[in-house]
Amino acid sequence: MADVIALTYDISPDDFTRAGEASSDVKSKLKQVGVSPAAIRKVAIAMYEGEINMVIHAEGGKITVEISPEQIRMILADKGPGIPNVEQAMQAGWSTAPDEVRSLGFGAGMGLPNMKKYTDEMNIETTLGVGTTITMVVKL
Amino acid sequence: MDKFYHSVRLESALCKGCINCIKRCPTQAIRVRDGKAQINGKFCIDCGECIRICPHHAKIATYDKLEVMRQYEYTVALPAPSLYSQFNNLEDVNIVLNALKLMGFDDVVEVSGAAEIVSEATRQYISAHQDQIPIISTACSSVVRLIRVRFPNLIPHLLPLNPPVEVAAGMAVKKALRESGLPREKIGIFFISPCPSKVTYVKAPLGTEKSEVDHVLAIKEVYPQLLSHMKAVGEDPEEIHISGKIGISWGRSGGEASGLFSENYLAADGIENVIRVLEDLEDEKFDNLQFVELNACNGGCVGGVLTVENPYVAEVKLKRLRKYMPVARSHMEESTKEFVPWTTKVEFEPVFRLGDNVMESFSRLERVERLCRRLPGLDCGSCGAPTCKALAEDIVRGEASERDCVYYLRDNLHKLSQEVAVLAEDLAERESENGDKGRLNALKEYIQMISDEMAVLDSKVKDENVKAEDE
């Protein structure tokens, strides 16, 4: 059986200031492990965008990162409101971010499009009132 | 501690006595007397506008030189967030921080990390003190100095928390004592600053008795050495960077306010804009504002007069640097709480008052108004004061005379020439009435009168001529 290392992160909704720390941690761990810089960049950006979304829109959740020799797989699962219209959400510029966080640079509406751009596979499963799970793969 | 210490100074040899700086100073603190600019220390707020405008580079900021590092056994660098915005193609803030260590600093404590702690404390303070809104940021020391002398009604609205540099210094000292085992005097805490205002803050702090910062270096002085050391930093720099989006954003206008997660704030930059906002705040024109961020420099700290990069380019660089950073990396802990709140109060300094009490000030005010009506109202600056009203106030305070006004001289010369014309006529008449004796007496009288007037005018001109000859 192939070796798979799994990292898990609980993304808390209570402290907005910690948003982005999980992807920061994954980035530094991947650097230590010696994954190619190009792959690290893709994982870091995709996971960052997903993590911020979880905090801003879904009141947190859980992120699992599975590292194997062939690929890095990220599973972002939340119990948030769900995405009403995925096609619309994937549009560049479409954002439902609240005004209070826009001055920090959030709310440009590029989160989901960037996640798709930087990963080799992306899958969105969502149910209104139940939650959303996004799975992304970056091949090594 | 000299509470009116100033780091903005005049290099007298370079000063030509032109009037650029006197017109630009936001508190009208400068006068040209005897051909040189003089800064009134009571009015000056160290905003650096005169440094920006002086075409002869005669206005300077005093700060410490790098060599001072040698006086200490253990040195800590406190880089301002604006420092990171000064470089091209910088992808990782750690490169700058590692380069500082290569330059010889034993440790680096980011001011942007302390800024995130101050942001956290500010959020808590605002929600606990709704009776005090709008709450005014105290991070820019020039603004606090301005409020202290000109907007006393706003003093109760000041956020009584130390600026990030002071919090960082407190943290740095604690860490340095622990890690070096050395006594305090052997440890040097160095702030790398974008502006002279913070140099003044360190020597004459507001809200605290004594600053823990030992020396202030200018970004523009540190820049060349830092750049060469940055090239020497390897592929995998040590992870010293402990701040996120909020801390980095403090370097530009609006950044401090963005750390509050609220919409109800106002951020203004540039000293003239700051003054306008303060006047409106005083008149209570704003409804429902929670927080007011004010920066004396255009663009915020990136626009400080000791920086290298254009402030608007620098702002873009900060945005790029912070893009994928976590929201914040530094958080308030028990060990850092003590460095945050003010320990002393800011008191009103009524430096602009015309007299010692209401009655005296009022009668002086009336004199000022009368004088203003006599003065030409051209605000030409030739007398050395920025406006005719300023000259009138100087006269009433006993610091100047109406004769300083070029137009006053011109008018008096005119009067004199008319009087001489009258003398000539009068002489002709008396000659015909009383003969020689009468003519002699009349002559003596008039000559004495003219001579008295001319002596007064002459003494002013003579002084300046002597000065010119001496040079």
Radius of gyration of chain A: 14 Å
- Sheet with the most strands of chain B? 4 strands, parallel
What is the N-to-C succession of helices and strands of chain A?
A: EHHEEHHEE
| Helix percent band of chain B | 40-55%
Helix content of chain A: 25-40%
How does the major sheet of chain A shape up?
Answer: 5 strands, antiparallel
The residue-averaged pLDDT of chain B reads 91
Radius of gyration of chain B: 29 Å
Please work out how many helical segments of chain B DSSP would assign: 17
Number of domains of chain A: 1
Percent range for β-strand residues of chain B: 5-15%
How many structural domains of chain B? 3
- Kindly name the structural category of chain B: alpha/beta
Using DSSP, what is the number of strands of chain A? 5
Number of helices of chain A: 4
Class of chain A, according to the CATH hierarchy?
Answer: Alpha Beta
Structural notes for this entry:
With 140 residues, chain A is an alpha+beta fold. Chain A has helices at 21-33, 37-58, 86-89, 111-118; strands at residues 5-11, 61-67, 71-78, 121-127, 131-139. Chain A has one domain (5-139): Heat Shock Protein 90, CATH 3.30.565. Chain A has a five-stranded antiparallel beta sheet with strand order 1-2-3-5-4, covered by helices on one side. In chain A, α1 (21-33) packs antiparallel against α2 and α2 runs antiparallel to α4 (111-118). The model of chain A has no long low-confidence stretch (mean pLDDT 93). Chain B has 17 helices and eleven strands. Chain B is of the alpha/beta class and 471 residues long. In chain B, α4 packs across α6 (164-180) and α16 (406-434) packs antiparallel against α17 (436-470). Helix content of chain B is 45%, strand content 10%. Chain B has three domains: 1-62, Alpha-Beta Plaits (2-Layer Sandwich); 66-337, no CATH class; 405-470. In chain B, the strands form four sheets. Chain B has a four-stranded parallel beta sheet with strand order 6-5-8-9, sandwiched between helices. Chain B has helices at residues 20-24, 49-53, 93-102, 111-128, 141-150, 164-180, 197-203, 219-232, 245-249, 255-258, 271-282, 311-322, 334-337, 358-374, 388-396, 406-434, 436-470; strands at residues 8-10, 30-33, 36-39, 59-61, 74-79, 107-108, 135-136, 187-193, 215-218, 265-269, 291-295. Classes of the chains: A alpha+beta (140), B alpha/beta (471). The A-B interface holds A 16-21, 23-24, 28, 31, 44-45, 48, 99-101, 103-105 and B 116, 120, 236, 239, 244-246, 249, 254, 257-259, 261-263, 319, 322-329, 331.
